[in-house]
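Figure 2 data, in text form.
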Amino acid sequence: MRAATAWTALRRAREHAVGRCPICGRRSVFLQLYGDSYREGLACVRCRSVSRKRHVALVIRDALDPSAPTAADAVRRTSTLLHTTDGRDALSASLRGYPGFSSSDYEPGVEPGASLGPQATCQDLERLTFADGSFDVLVTEDVLEHVRRPDAAFREIHRVLRPGGRHVFTVPFFYDRPTLTRVDTSGAEDVHLMEPEYHGDPIRGRILAYRTFGVDLFADLERSGFATTAHVAQRRDAAYGIHDSVVFVSRRLP
């Protein structure tokens, strides 16, 4: 551990947690090293997953097989076909090699559908290259706020899921107001309605946020053919190092 990181770990010792990681399945210490966000912090010292990603994994495990020790075990036991738009995280690493797993990233200048490596392709959520009914579970984490036309993405996700399949996702979300639209995308060119907001991105360095979703999201998803529930982190989730997180699950209606 680098000296600066070690100092941060010591200074924030009261904020750390212990428990069992639902991604790597091991007893672990969860270190709060990343600012004041528990959603993006509490890193597992074993697999480096953060609170948000462990919450996604826990929701997947509980939906498929709550008796399984990890999300990957639940996916394998149930022969679930799972696709995620983050092929670099600990959940993807735990599933790599399983034939029912695939991942994708969107890389500008790369043809959608092109291979990015083993079990990975370039995909645009607004025009996925997969066949209808390809997956049981599709995971997107903090992606849809960066998609220019999310209604098109929801239609595509609905198309590639099997009936009853689940879209498990996270987005920045307002619990008490409608969606905040930051950019008008009704035309061919983006029109900024307020000061541009950018988020960090491992490929592009930073990426434009088109919106922050609000309570109207549920109605929008219903119109797209989904029944959606929000899983807010509960007290029992602290045993998995999960705090300050909400995961949405949209089940594809027949």
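Caption note: Residues 51-252 form a domain with the Rossmann fold fold (CATH 3.40.50.150).
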